[in-house]
Specification:
alpha/beta, Ubiquitin-like (UB roll), Elongation Factor Tu (Ef-tu), domain 3, Rossmann fold, 3 domains, six-stranded antiparallel sheet
Length: 339
């Protein structure tokens, strides 16, 4: 029997996936999976179950009334989950927290395969894929519980959904909880507990040029996105600006070079903020943003980096009068000390 995978992305960043039959309504599939999406009438009359379909094909039928969903709302991608029957895999933004729907993050475990250090800049954590690994959207993250600490840290997947192994690019922080464990305690075969996937920072359908702005280990989610773009053979132009603080913080550039060969239209530049850098481009990402990469505003911008970088890019766009077609960003702040 044909079924489609529906990603339900809640307001608080939690994502749950359900399988929905080719003739089944999304609301019914969610209930079958014990996810109580907002609803009242379930007959297309009240509009309580209104959500936004961010990608995918579907049929809404003609049994709902316009008071529940107007023609303009339907044209903008709003849907009634009590009437929506998918015709492909879909991503649906649900405008309430997951707790309201009595659902939560999935819990799973995975074994350490390898920890690869990059000088004193970062680590690549490689995990064997467990049988109960959750599906995720490229760009999302999980909470990884640091063994023996009772605490967790949040890291974006650098691997793509469905990859053979699960990978994460983790910034080295002196005396940091995760950094200390990766350096002194991590061993092959060790089990890590995780919860997720989480986050509203993920790759949307690619209908126009893309601009990726990565700061330090904010590169991680873009590696996941690029692998998906390589698989999809996307032909839209994609430009990345990868900025770091020090020369040694530029890691996995060879992987970006590989994607430049695999993804049609993908180009990238790197820059280093340190005034004493030996790199050919000194400065911040806003100083190395070519006008052609903005396509006159007809561009989807994705930004992942520390808060000052996110704030600087927003101020740059405002000062230059740039309004991208869409702007998705995620801020991260490394924890500085062990507990």
């Amino acid at each position: 029997m044909t079924s489609y995978r529906i990603a339900l992305n809640f307001e608080d960043g939690v994502t749950r996936f359900v399988e929905c039959g080719a003739t089944e309504k999304v609301l019914d599939a969610a209930f079958r999976n014990r996810i109580n999406l907002p609803m009242d009438c379930s007959d297309g009359v009240c509009g309580t179950c209104k959500c936004r379909a961010e990608s995918g094909a579907y049929d809404l039928g003609d049994e709902y009334i316009e008071d529940a969903l107007t023609e303009d709302e339907a044209a903008e991608g709003l849907v009634l989950t009590c009437q929506m029957v998918p015709k492909s895999d879909c991503v649906i933004a649900v405008p309430v927290p997951s707790t309201t729907c009595k659902t939560g993050t999935a819990e799973f475990s995975a074994n350490v395969s390898e920890v690869a250090p990059f000088s004193d800049a970062a680590y690549e954590l490689v995990l064997d894929i467990p049988e109960n690994a959750p599906v995720f959207l490229p760009g999302q993250y999980v909470n990884i519980h640091v063994p023996g600490s009772g605490q967790h840290r949040s890291y974006s997947f650098s691997s793509a959904p469905g990859a053979r192994r699960m990978t994460f690019l983790i910034k080295h922080v002196d005396s940091g909880l995760m950094s200390t464990w990766l350096k002194e305690g991590a061993a092959s075969g060790q089990t890590l507990q995780m919860t997720g996937p989480l986050g509203s920072f993920y790759l949307r359908p690619v209908n126009r040029p893309l601009l990726f702005l990565a700061g330090g280990t904010g590169l991680a989610p873009f590696l996941s996105m690029l692998e998906v773009l390589a698989t999809q053979k996307s032909e839209q132009p994609v430009h990345m600006i990868y900025g770091v603080t020090r020369d040694q913080d530029l890691v996995l550039v060879d992987r970006l070079q590989e994607y430049a060969q695999r993804v049609p239209g993908f180009t990238f530049t790197t820059c280093v903020a340190d005034a004493n850098t030996a790199h050919e481009r000194q400065g911040y990402v806003t100083q190395h943003m070519p006008a052609q990469a903005l396509h006159g505003g007809n561009v989807d911008v994705y930004l992942c980096g520390p808060p000052p970088m996110v704030d600087a890019v927003q101020k740059h766009f405002k000062s230059e009068g740039i309004t991208p077609a869409s702007f998705h960003y995620e801020k991260f702040t490394p924890n500085q000390t062990t507990a």
